[in-house]
Specification:
368 residues, mainly alpha, transmembrane helix, acyltransferase activity, transferring groups other than amino-acyl groups
């Protein structure tokens, strides 16, 4: 029995993508004020304070699932796009929708963000900007996502060219299959981190996190091809939500000051715990959010529709906006948690407004 590919749009999924995009902004705000990870501007470095530890947990839990969710959703729309456009048309569209934002960020918004971040160190904005352009430096920033998605899309198009997939209706994967996928993801993450520990960047890509990205992208494609996209059983989500709650405390074990080795990579117990912890938490969060989203079939209200339409534009422009907002308040001697909340909120609001203006520019809507 054949089944149609995933629908072009779904209100619940559109809203989910939009809110996860805002979470990305807050994630980077947390790094700004003491959370772990790489970012253009850090007002406070990571330390062992309770606030920094809270930011660390927040960032680690986010990292386990939120970018993977984007890859899952992107993968779900690939089979239908390949059917409608063919491999060449699909890739042409991906180059426009992903390649152009990547180039614009790498050569313009990235250097602007770096230049902003250097101003507190006494370097003039224009000096840094000119240095970046003259040196030919390319700053992909969070548009590494576009690079990765372009690569995965190219593989999907090649697969479609060599052996087009029949859209065959199948039931939602059993818990045994989901468990096997989680174990495979943890094993692959552990192996990748032997070569590229967490924090190691190659062309802006942290391959140590790519196990879940690749598996979830493939899962999205399979969901669309097999007819279970937007048909996640609530019982499966409940089961994996319980698993996630049970797994969450193991994060503290992985990063505890015990003789367990480096959790970021290498042959160590801590690295194994962290690598396997991620998918068991991710599956619970992702399935829970999908069940919530698939039930929201009513059209979005005016604000929700605007936020959904502007989500990718917000993702692209948020680095310079967030850095500018953080720099504007750097002299305020306020608690880090308060600055995190205010900076993240103000950056989201400004990005929403700027994205709306940007999308009014002729031709921009075709890209973003």
């Amino acid at each position: 029995m054949t089944t149609p590919a995933a629908p072009l749009r779904h209100p619940g999924i559109d809203r989910l993508k939009a809110w996860v995009t805002l979470l990305v902004v807050f994630h980077h705000a947390a790094i700004t004020y003491g959370g772990p990870g790489g970012w253009f501007w850090r007002e406070r470095s990571s330390n062992e304070s309770p606030t920094a530890e809270a930011f660390g947990i927040f960032c680690a839990v986010n990292q386990a699932w939120f970018m993977g969710m984007f890859f899952l959703i992107a993968g779900a729309y690939v089979p239908g796009a390949l059917q409608r456009k063919g491999s060449a048309g699909f890739l042409r569209d991906r180059v426009i929708r992903l390649g152009i934002p990547l180039v614009v960020f790498g050569w313009l918004l990235g250097p602007v963000t770096v230049a902003l971040a250097q101003t507190p160190r006494g370097t003039a904005f224009t000096d840094t900007l000119l240095w970046a352009w003259r040196s030919g430096r390319f700053f992909p920033g969070p548009l590494w996502f576009a690079t990765a998605l372009l690569a995965m899309s190219a593989v999907a198009a090649l697969r479609h060219t060599l052996r087009p997939s029949a859209l065959q209706s199948r039931p939602f994967p059993s818990n045994t299959v989901l468990l096997a996928a989680a174990l495979a993801c943890g094993t692959l993450a552990f192996a990748l981190r032997l070569v590229w520990p967490v924090g190691t960047s190659v062309w802006g890509l942290q391959f140590g996190y790519f196990a879940s990205y690749m598996i979830l992208f493939a899962a999205g494609m399979a969901a669309a091809e097999q007819g279970w996209w937007l048909a996640v059983p609530p019982a499966a989500a409940r089961t994996w939500r319980r698993v996630a709650w049970c797994a969450l405390p193991l994060l503290l074990l992985a990063f505890a000051p015990l003789p367990m080795g480096d959790p970021m990579g290498g042959v160590s117990l801590a690295a194994a715990v962290y690598a396997f912890w991620e998918p068991f938490v991710a599956w619970g969060i992702v399935l829970t959010l999908l069940v919530h989203a698939q039930a929201r079939t009513a059209p979005s209200g005016r604000f929700g529709a605007a936020l959904a339409r502007r989500a990718f534009a917000i993702y692209v422009i948020h680095p310079p906006v967030l850095v500018a907002v953080a720099l504007a308040g750097r002299e305020l001697a306020w608690p880090a948690l308060l600055k995190f909340a205010l900076t993240g909120s103000l950056a989201c609001a400004l990005c929403f407004l700027l994205a709306g203006l940007l999308l009014r520019v002729p031709g921009v809507g075709r890209v973003l």
